[in-house]
Amino acid sequence: MNSGEPCEVEGRFRRFDGEFRWFLFRGSPLRDQSGKVAKWYGTNTDLEERKRAEDALRKSEERWRSVFVNSAIGVALTDLDGRFIATNHVYQTIVGYTEEELRGVNFLDLTHEDYREANWALITELVNGRRRQFQIEKKYRRKDGSLILVRNNVSRQSRTHCDGLVL
């Protein structure tokens, strides 16, 4: 405020009743004809509920990340076209690819050709809302060329910021 420029400060402050809460303080100077600050106008916005929601979201994301990373089963997230978005270490070990390599392929690229048509038909039903989830036993072709039998439990995850499949 010493600079005379508008300012914004976010922090925990004691409210009139003694409770500490998150607030956003904004201040704007009113200048006189010579350009000097004559007075300050400001607002205080209570951010407590937003901060609580952000904290709850952060904790939820940490729990999800922990389940994803530490799961004893392979987990992969794809977009609706089957391109990999994220995979855990177990999934990477199963197929023999790194996460970076998987981002360059589609899950059907790993699916043995004998299973591709049936697998894509199930995905189409899932995307079109005719199924909530499905299970399929199929073979993946690993990076080294060997085949491995897997059982996929697939569901659609629909959110405004992420629409995709969990394999």
Give a description of the structure:
This protein has 167 residues and is of the alpha+beta class. Helix content is 32%, strand content 38%. It is built from five helices and eight strands. Strands 5-4-8-7-6 form a five-stranded antiparallel sheet. It has a three-stranded antiparallel sheet with strand order 1-2-3, with helices on one face. The longest helix is centred in the middle third of the chain and has 23 residues. The radius of gyration is 26 Å and the shape is elongated. The model has no long low-confidence stretch (mean pLDDT 91).
Annotate the secondary structure layout.
Elements: E1 7-14, E2 20-31, E3 37-46, H1 48-70, E4 76-79, E5 84-87, H2 89-95, H3 99-102, H4 107-110, H5 113-127, E6 133-141, E7 147-158, E8 163-166
Antiparallel strand pairs: 1-2, 2-3, 4-5, 4-8, 6-7, 7-8
